[in-house]
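Session log. Operator J.P. requested a structure for one protein chain; no other inputs attached. Running the standard single-chain path with token output.
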Amino acid sequence: MNDNIVIRSAKIEDAHDILKITRQAFLSYIKLAEISDTKALHETIEDVLYDINNKIVIVAEDAGQILGCVRVEITDDVNAYLSRFGVKSYLRNGGIGKAIIKAVDEKMTEHGIKKLWLHTSSKISSLVRFYYGRGFYIDSTDKSNGYIRALFCKEYK
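Structure written below.
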């Protein structure tokens, strides 16, 4: 990963870039998962702005350009849910995603979170490997969205 990349909390002015990266990431996701649609593709700028104001939103930035992002909602005193994770396609497998998850881990520890949850397609082996490599495990699977999604969990001490 480039030494100039900064991992930081999102600002309101990042919203358009976050929306663009999320759309790009989830267009790739639906192709790899062999599904036709996902809620992430129907987000509006207002949805992103809401999340910046009400959730933990982390971005990776280089020279003013947003390269990746993630959103985390603290759902109760000990649990949080990770969503809308994406890195620009031409930068994937370069360490940006790992750096973003490391920043998420630090935020979870700061907030006293014991379990971080997320859903992803169990069919996309690269995502499954990525999350396992970051300390997540599959808690369960379901087909509530019309395809097999794995519910991943990461536990913090």
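Operator note: The mean pLDDT is 96.
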